[in-house]
Specification:
Blueprint lengths: L2 E7 L3 E7 L6 E6 L2 H11 L6 E6 L3 H12 L3 E6 L1 H10 L7 H14 L10 H32 L5 H30 L2 H10 L7 H11 L8 H7 L4 E6 L3 E7 L5 H17 L1 H12 L4 H22 L5 H4 L9 H14 L4
Parallel strand pairs: 1-4, 4-5
Antiparallel strand pairs: 1-2, 2-3, 6-7
Length: about 350
């Protein structure tokens, strides 16, 4: 006997649906704050049965609730991919969407689908990820402001005040990003495991300290027992095949059903490693010789780098290029081929 619970999280409220086996459906709305979280836990404990809660990964709005549920005795929490819940709702032929219906859909998911418990990472790692994601957000804003600054410089019709505004905004964003990067490095330097894994990451030619911090923050939240293939799926770098009968056979693409922060953090390191790491250069040349397109090659390098990082973390060893791709005798001439592929990939859109 157990209680299954579905929680739809919004900024201010929690829509909750639950029931015991054979019991009626029950619904309540709680405030999405610490007092509301405790009231929810108290309500669910009334039956004195094990409680299994499923909620969607909704970023900062659901993090405190997940932490509170994880700390509560007798309560297990699963943080599900929102797309998984959405696809489950489509399979139920749902035509309407409200917070109450979403909570009921999540409840049905909890009752029918495998339950994968979520366990809270350390406060240090949570803080590190929050900082790096903020850096990623500010970086996107800065690139947009630099584009506006370039437009202002190139156009005589735009007043000097707009040019100055864009320049000042870029300077402010650069200063804030530098402050956050220093904070992230202090966190890493103060934690032995984070510091060691930072050293492992930067042993790969192509992964500098900035990229390593972004990658590390995303990977350290993953459960220790995840396989390298699960890492790839988590990053959305797994292939998505679309085939049906003899008439539908679309080109395979990456699923992108995963952590876009991790996927984005791997993009430039894969590009740089393909220029400066001989074994990655050889791997790219091998794929190019097989007729793969530049963007396919780049995604393959990102995926293979993630496999390599998984093995490095598991064995606590530095990057070994010969395990990434074994170069054939006389393979030094592959760099020119790979460089032409790199120039093509650089012109393509980011993964």
């Amino acid at each position: 006997m157990k209680i299954c619970v579905g929680v739809d999280v919004s900024a201010a409220t929690l829509e909750v649906a639950w029931r015991t086996p054979g019991g009626p459906l029950r619904r309540r709305t709680f405030a999405n704050d610490s007092s509301g979280h405790q009231a929810l836990i108290k309500e669910l404990r009334r039956e004195r049965l094990p409680v299994f809660v499923v909620m969607e990964a909704t970023g900062i709005y659901g993090l405190d609730l997940a932490l509170a549920l994880d700390r509560a005795s007798g309560v297990e929490v699963m943080v599900a991919n929102p797309r998984t819940i959405a696809d489950f709702g489509k399979a139920l032929l749902q035509r309407s969407k409200t917070d109450r219906l979403d909570a009921e859909t999540i409840l049905l998911f909890a009752e029918r689908m495998p339950f994968v418990p979520w366990h809270a990472p350390s406060t240090t790692i949570l803080e590190l990820r929050a900082i790096t994601r903020r850096i990623a957000t500010l970086g996107k804003m800065m690139r947009a402001e630099k584009a506006r600054q370039h437009t202002a410089e190139a156009s005589k019709a735009v007043g000097a005040i707009l040019h100055k505004s864009a320049r000042n905004t870029v300077a402010m964003l650069e200063k804030e990003i530098a402050t956050l990067r220093n904070a992230a490095r202090k966190i890493i330097d103060g934690d032995a495991q984070l510091k060691r894994r930072m050293e492992l990451l930067t042993s790969i030619k192509g992964i500098g300290s900035i990229s390593a911090v972004q990658i590390l923050a995303e990977l350290m939240l993953l459960p220790a027992d995840m396989t390298d293939r699960q890492w790839v799926a988590h990053a959305g770098l797994d292939p998505r095949l679309v085939q049906s009968g003899t008439s539908v056979h679309l080109t395979a693409r990456i699923s992108k059903t995963g952590n876009h922060y991790l996927r984005g953090a791997l993009y430039m390191p894969a590009l740089t490693a393909g220029r400066y790491e001989p074994h990655v250069v050889g791997f790219r040349a091998h794929l190019l010789a097989r007729g793969k397109r530049p963007k396919q090659i780049h995604v393959a390098v990102m995926r293979k780098l993630l496999h390599a990082i998984h093995a490095m973390f598991r064995s606590d060893t530095f990057f070994d290029g010969s395990k990434f791709y074994r170069l054939a005798a006389g393979a030094a001439g592959t760099s020119g081929i790979a460089s032409s592929a790199i120039s093509e990939v650089s012109a393509a859109h980011s993964c």
